[in-house]
Specification:
single chain, 17 strands, 7-stranded parallel sheet, 5-stranded parallel sheet
Length: 340
């Protein structure tokens, strides 16, 4: 096996989190990973650091400290203004080879996944992608990554014995971001990044962002499965009345009834709403992982033996096409009475 560029004997006892920039703030998944990292570092007595790359982004450091970082390594360069895999992987590589952290976590976003893969190859280390949980084996100082495989039938626990850094990606929504403490502060460490334009093959011609659907923080999720027969308008009306949004299982997405960004579950979005209302959904494991962090689950299914009822707090055995119109009418009336 090829050795990584540095090993256990050279590692710094620290966890690093890649701080992805989303507009004017840090991406939600980065804050979630900071919260998890803080918990682990407090147990181990390790340092928690963030890697922030960009141009003119130093103001975001305060947000990182408030959420729990001890220090931020900042690579600021005009060539880092927009994400390009060549510039970002080179800057991240330089930073990691300078500090040699034991652990490096990234959000499993399009950019995070891109960066993680390129970097792992360059550092000659391993990468655990799309982990469903992370914790440390304190005795060995090893990261334990929980990864589901074989369509959810197997839960693998993966540790890296010798390769460093121990890299992992985690999808948005797996952890809670916690509350910021605006009195916390940290140390900003500027990085010397040696980038030149000829390193970068990617040319940004136009940047266009489509309508963004983010179900990770939605308070009420109304999810529909094959049993709603593609009637997502009905579900959208209910979601609107409850101040929420709609999601779906994979079959309606595959059949083109709803956008792929709204797929909930193992290969979709992991949500943690206050209430999840599951309509015409059987309750396959692949779907359930996307709602199991909800505070309350309501399931409506015409089959009393549907597995979704094993996860639900409230179980309604009924035809969705009969029960939902009545519920929508009742809620609309209540709203009229309340708001006139
Ligand atoms: C590797 C892999 C990854 C996957 N990832 C995902 C994922 O991320 N998300 C996901 O959702 N799936 C995923 N799947 C698919 C998953 O295994 C299930 O097939 C899928 O979740 C089933 O969707 P469903 O519950 O809508 O459909 P079905 O299993 O067909 O269930 C439909 C339910 O609707 C009920 N019903 C029918 N008519 C009515 C009615 N009129 N009123 C009330 N109830 C009614 C039925 O009783 C039934 O329980 C994945 C599969 C694989 C192999």
């Amino acid at each position: 096996m090829v050795a990584s560029l540095y090993g256990v004997d050279q590692e710094a006892k620290s966890i690093w989190v890649y701080l992805e920039v989303d507009g004017d703030s840090l991406a939600g998944v980065s804050l979630e990973l900071i919260a998890k990292g803080r918990e682990v570092c407090d147990q181990l007595g390790w340092e928690l650091a963030g890697l922030l790359l960009g141009h003119g982004v130093s103001d975001l450091a305060a947000e990182g400290y408030a959420h729990g970082l001890d220090e931020i390594w900042l690579g600021d360069d005009p060539l880092l203004e927009h994400f390009t895999i060549e510039a970002y992987s080179m800057a991240a590589y330089q930073a990691i080879m300078t500090a040699k952290p034991s652990v490096f976590w990234l959000g499993a976003t399009p950019d995070g996944r891109d960066l993680a893969g390129r970097l792992a190859v360059r550092l000659r280390t391993g990468l655990n992608a799309d982990c469903t949980n992370l914790y440390m084996n304190a005795e060995e100082g090893r990261l334990v990554c929980e990864v589901s495989g074989f369509g959810g039938g197997v839960l693998a626990l993966i540790e890296m014995a010798e390769h460093r850094p121990q890299m992992a990606t985690v999808r948005p929504g797996v952890y809670s971001p916690g509350s910021p403490d605006r009195n916390r502060s940290g140390v900003l460490i500027p990085l010397e990044v040696n980038l030149t334009e000829d390193l970068i093959d990617t040319r940004l011609i136009e940047r266009s962002i489509g309508e963004q659907v983010d179900l990770t923080g939605v308070p009420v999720l109304v999810a529909g499965g094959r049993g709603v027969d593609g009637d997502f308008e009905m579900l959208a009306r209910l979601a609107e009345l409850l101040g929420g949004d709609i999601g779906a299982t994979r079959p309606p997405v595959d059949e083109g009834h709803i956008e792929r960004e709204r797929q909930i579950g193992q290969t979709g979005v992991i949500t943690r709403p206050k209430v999840a209302i599951c309509c015409g959904i059987s309750g396959a494991f692949h779907f359930v992982v996307g709602i199991e962090k909800a505070d309350l689950v309501v399931a409506i299914n015409s089959d009393p033996g549907a597995p979704i009822f094993d996860y639900a707090d409230y179980c309604i055995v009924a035809d969705v096409h009969e029960i939902l119109p009545g519920l929508i009418t009742a809620l609309s009336r209540e709203r009229e009475v309340t708001f006139g």
